[in-house]
Amino acid sequence: MVLAAESAPRRLRLLVLGGTAWLGGEIVSNALARGHEVTCLARGSSGTVPLGARFVRADRSTAGAYDPVVQGGQRWDAVVDLGRDASHVRDAVSVLEPAGASYVFVSSVSVYADTPTRRRRGPTSPPCSSTATSRTTAGRRWPPNGPSSRRSAANGR
Fold it and tell me: Domain containing 88 — which CATH number?
């Protein structure tokens, strides 16, 4: 019996909203190390993007902030949103969802039951079901290879 060789992971085009602070920098660095193409849209006030990532300076609270990353019909395999302001996330989803295959929202503030209270040290929201945590805002499953795949874009396995 001959086994087919496992193909190399596909190179993804990732758009990271943020990428200049600690968590974003870690996500970007790991994606770059795995050979993915990464663009970071951020104010740039928290630092610089890791070497190898493209930096697009924008303030998400201004009109047209996402224009540079969607003009010309640009498409993204995944958008990773590190926002903490709900209005920024809503705006980003409405503009970027049509341009991205998957949308991933990551925010430590989202685990608190009382999200308007910053830096809260108290009760957390109940955990989501496994189905809820594996779905994107558009209702598509992640990873893009389908629910039977255990390969993730972040770890290549």
Answer: 3.40.50.720
